Amino acid sequence: MENKIHDIQDELLISILIPTYNRPEKTLRAVYSALQQNYSHIEVIVTDNSDNDQTKNLLESIISDKRLRYYKNETNIGLLNNWKKALGLAKGAYIKILFSDDWMDSSFCKDAFFQFQINPSVTAVFSNVLLRTYEKDIILYSFNKTQTFALEDYLENLIFKSNLSLSPGNFIFRSEAIQFKEFYYNDDLNMQVNNTGAGADILLVLSSLIQKNTIAIGLPFFYSFFESKDDSVTLNKWPLVSAVYNKCLYEFVQESDISNKIALSKTLSERVNGKQYRKNSARKFLKELNTRFNPFFK
Questions:
Q1: What average pLDDT does this structure show over 143-150?
Q2: Which one of 10, 17, 179, 244 is at 20 to 30 Å from 200 when CA atoms are compared?
């Protein structure tokens, strides 16, 4: 099922969306990084699923900025519905999803807008990513020059080289391209997708990027910052998250009309049905990252 849930109201505006749940201090950090953008045409929308008013009280006590719009859900509407609510409230021609435990560099919106203006066929702009753990900061995804990716190139890099991000938190999209594409599995897997967002996040990215032939521009700057600590889904549920990611990628490739479909499907099928990915733990995953990527800070 595909849903376009956003109507463009302002051709210059970038809507920065921060869905959150019980993370008052981290949400404040995300909001600050959004409001400190050196691109002036922004709105910041917080949709709060929290079971208390801590985030609401903290934001109201510290921030007085008309660009910030805060919405507290009366009941917990679920992770995916909270994302959709934020998207439905956005007014901009461009969408930046900023998860509440992430933050971004002050130049991301300005540089992304420039790329959209000079590249009318581009659907999205993304950047290098720095992952913060307890031990050090890790260069998670990195390239040294501005690059343009067609869908086949993006998928090959994502699946075979693992050197591109699959999180919507690292992208700024044209809002007209935003799509929610959902696949349905057994009840247990559906429940885990709804609870963690795993799978739904990469399907949002891929379903949005597939809209045009020239799909994405990668900027060679560290504009996106992720955190992996105690409350991180990636850290605590990596075996599940990895399995869901590979299953969603497999289903997406199977439904796509791309030239490298057979090779991608074969690799993903082996991952979905194999033992290697099911056995990986989050701690092993982070250890592998430390080995594969040069640490930004020792």
A1: 89
A2: 10
Count Cβ neighbours within 10 Å for each residue of 137-174 and write b for 16 or more, e otherwise: bbbbbbeeeeeebbbeebbbbbbeeeebbbbbbbbbbb
**Do 130 and 226 form a contact (C-beta atoms < 8 A)?**
yes
DSSP 125: E
User: In whole angstroms, what is the distance from residue 171 CA to residue 145 CA?
Assistant: 17
pLDDT in tens, 173-232: 999 888 766 554 444 455 555 556 667 788 788 888 876 656 789 999 999 999 876 656
CA separation for the pair 277, 25 (Å, rounded): 33
- Residue type (1 letter), 5: I
Beta strands at 214-227 and 124-132: parallel, antiparallel or unpaired: parallel
Rounded Cα–Cα distance for residues 125 and 207 (Å): 15
Q: DSSP state, 295?
A: B
Whether 169 contacts 192, CB under 8 Å? no
Residue 21 has which token pair? 């749940």
Q: What angle do the packed helices 261-273 and 238-255 form, to 10 degrees?
A: 150
261 closest CA partner among 155, 107, 146, 113: 155
CA 259 to chain centre: 26
| CB 265, CB 252: distance < 8 Å | no
- How do strand 180-181 and strand 171-174 relate by DSSP bridges? unpaired
Q: What are the angstrom distances between the C-alpha of 27 and each of 37, 49, 57, 58, 210?
A: 16, 12, 12, 9, 31
Q: Which of helix, strand or coil describes residue 179?
A: coil
Give residue 152's Cα distance to chain centre: 19
Distances (CA, A) of 293 to 57, 143, 171, 286: 39, 12, 21, 10
